[in-house]
Amino acid sequence: MFETQRKNRRDYYRNVYLKSEAWQRKRYVVLKRDNWLCVYCGVKATQVHHTRYAKYNVGKMPIDWLISVCNNCHEDLHK
After folding, report:
1. Domains, in order of start, for the chain
2. Which Gene3D superfamilies match (predicted)?
């Protein structure tokens, strides 16, 4: 049961929330806050990375839990 709930949350997050206007607004705020630069290497940021996740409240993470990153740094973070 727990695994099913976890999978459902993950699927909702990936397939619904990350495509929503709410996420697009939050993403824009984070990129603007970080001057459109990767916080790790300083090149142009194209992505937003979650430093933590709100376990049960998808989309309710505070802006402080998000950082701007370039593709290369984002890939390194997920290795």
Report:
1. 2-77 (3.40.1800)
2. 1.10.30.50
What is the distance between the alpha carbons of residues 24 and 53, in angstroms, rounded to a whole number? 17
**How far is 48 from 31, CA to CA, in rounded Å?**
7
CB 47 within 8 A of CB 66: no
Q: What is the pTM of this model?
A: 0.83
Report how far residue 78's alpha carbon sits from residue 67's, in angstroms, rounded to the nearest whole number: 14
- Is residue 63 within 8 A of residue 27, CB to CB? The reply is no
Cα–Cα distance list, 64 to 32, 34, 61 (Å) = 13, 11, 8
pLDDT tens digits, 14-59 = 899 999 999 999 999 999 999 999 999 999 999 999 998 776 676 7
